[in-house]
Amino acid sequence: MANTFRRLTARTRRIERGDARHDRPLLELLPGGAPLSWVRAGEGLVGWGCAARLCTSGPDRFADADSWWVELAEHFDIDDSVGLPGCGPVAFASLAFAAEPGESVLVVPEVVIGERDGIRWITTIGDPDTDNEIAPVHPPGTVSYSDGRLSSSGYRQAVSDAVRVMREDGELAKIVLAHDLVADTSEPLDERFLLHNLAARYPSCWTFAVDGLLGATPEMLLERQGYAVRSRVLAGTVWPREGWDDDELATELLTSAKNRAEHAYATRSLADALRAFCSELEVPAEPQVLRLRNVLHLATDVEGKLADTPDGATGLLSMLAAVHPTAAVGGTPTREAVRRIPELEGMDRGRYAGPVGWIDTAGNGEFGIALRCAQVEAAEEPFEEDGSAAAPGPGRGGGRVRLFAGGGIVPDSEPDLEVAEVEAKLLPVREALEGVR
Question: Per the record, which residues fall in region Disordered (predicted)?
Answer without folding.
Answer: 382-401
